[in-house]
Known about the structure:
Largest sheet: none
Order of helices and strands: HHHHHHHHHHHHH
Strand content: under 5%
Amino acid sequence: DVIFYGLQQILPLMTQGLLQFPTLCTQYFSLVGYTMDTYPEKVCALPYELFGPLLDSMLFGISHADQFVSKSCLRGISGLFSEHLKSQAMSGHLSHHIDILDQCSSRLLKEVIFQPLIWDRLEPAGMALLPLVAVDVNRFAALVNSISQPQSIGSVEKQHRLQAAFQSLLQPEIISKMANGSTGGFEGRKNRLKFKRDFELFVKDVHSFLVMK
């Protein structure tokens, strides 16, 4: 409760300008990433006036040059959506702000996964993507279709290769188990390890023909 009281006090003060100061930036994202990863159910229960800016700051941090900052943010996002799969903790926010999913998935793909900086944050990026997909796989598929249009990535050939890469990555068995709340225990670990291996192959494949500028 003390941590959340502190967050409520500092969140309105934190701007992207202030986050350019390295020490302040590191301390802030260390606190926020820890809080979201450790107490995701309490973060999800925050009023949207606090939850929204908190999530925005995490999305700002996922592409940060400092890999400690980016990993903290990616783990925080993973924690939030994994908690939602288990307990539907974000249902209230998603019912009024369904674009949360598109915003998180789109920025994760365009600003991290499709960028050269992915390699120092590969595992947490994959672990953030998995629960995001599982929350609403059809919505994610629509997003993939949108960003893989030839006019966006350069050619029909690249479109087909990108869509095929996503099909190989998103195995229905793993996604459905995640969607049903199987995020912990032996089964959850096995699914995450499988996805981790597949995600690394996916990134290598996609980066062989597509890196977004």
